[in-house]
Write a structure and sequence with these properties.
11 helices, Aspartate Aminotransferase, domain 2, Aspartate Aminotransferase, domain 1, 7-stranded mixed sheet, alpha/beta, 295 residues, 3-stranded antiparallel sheet, 2 domains
Length: 295
């Protein structure tokens, strides 16, 4: 209800420009952005379609939306036919929500195809780009798009945001409880995020992304460098924990991800690369992973 400072408005203006949107709204966290956006869109007669591998914050946002009267349908990962059927048969307002890059697998959503389906059926595409530091950054999609992002991963600050048309942002300002009824983002965090965003959009930012792409290519040379997230599936929880502990003994922190974060039988090492990593550190990681039987 109060607490905005000029730095918040400046940050929101540049976030909107970055996402080619009319306006943006800053949240205290990316998690609260998903909770707020999805609950604000909810209501009787609203359909929300959610990818089965979406982030926990989207899942919780969908649960909250369902409690407010929306119908929530979870479709199999990247299943365009399922999305098409859901949208085609729904008579009211609809939205499709998906991660752009999935947080545990590092793969891309079929964004152009989802946008085409939303455009044909009058649906809103809600695109969470929290992990999409390497892009691609989609512009001029054939449907209305609401971008959600984080300020606390690649930008190294704190907070989250939503960027969309002025009408949608006005709706959020007036209806989004996780925005209205919580303390706003601390001004120093907003200033740090703005400084990082300006670096990201500069030639220096292009160089940092190119370095990060190179690191990703070193780990998976057979695949295009689409994400700094590179999983190595072990299957069992014990194998993931043992591999993580062995890497830590070598000075390499690679978390073991286990159920319920991932399905049973798909425990994994989740490598998350950074442009701050050196070539020597990445070489050490590659050698260590190969020594543990990963390639």
């Amino acid at each position: 209800m109060s607490g905005d400072r000029p730095i918040h408005e400046e940050l929101e203006k540049e976030l909107a420009q970055w996402k080619s949107a009319d306006a943006a709204l800053v949240f205290p966290t990316g998690y609260s952005a998903n909770l707020g956006v999805l609950s604000a869109l909810a209501g009787a007669g609203v359909l929300i379609c959610s990818d089965a591998l979406n982030h926990a914050s989207i899942i919780d946002g969908c649960r909250l939306a369902a409690s407010l009267g929306a119908r929530v349908e979870t479709y199999a990962h990247a299943d365009l036919a399922a999305v098409s059927a859901l949208l085609r048969d729904w008579p009211g307002r609809s939205a499709v929500v998906t991660d752009a890059v999935f947080s545990m697998d590092g793969d891309l959503a079929p964004v152009p195809e989802l946008a085409d389906l939303c455009g044909r059926h009058g649906g809103l595409l809600v695109l969470d780009e929290a992990h999409a530091v390497l892009g691609p950054h989609w512009r001029e999609l054939p449907c209305e798009v609401l971008h959600i992002g984080t300020l606390s991963k690649a930008l190294g600050s704190q907070g989250g945001f939503a960027a969309a048309t002025k009408e949608i942002v006005d709706l959020l300002v007036n209806r989004c409880r996780p925005f209205i009824y919580t303390t706003g983002l601390a001004p120093p965090s907003a200033a740090a995020a703005l400084a990082a965003l300006r670096i990201l959009r500069s030639p220096e930012g292009s160089e940092l992304r190119a370095r990060l792409q190179g690191h990703s290519r070193r780990l998976r040379p057979e695949q295009p460098p689409i994400s700094p997230i590179v999983p190595f599936v072990t299957g069992s929880e014990s194998a993931a924990l043992e591999a993580s502990a062995a890497l830590l003994d070598m000075g390499l922190f690679v978390p073991a991800v286990r159920p319920p974060t991932v399905p049973p039988g798909t425990s994994r090492l989740r490598v998350t690369l950074s442009s701050a990593h050196t070539e020597e550190e990445v070489d050490l990681l590659v050698e260590a992973l190969q020594g543990l039987g990963f390639s």
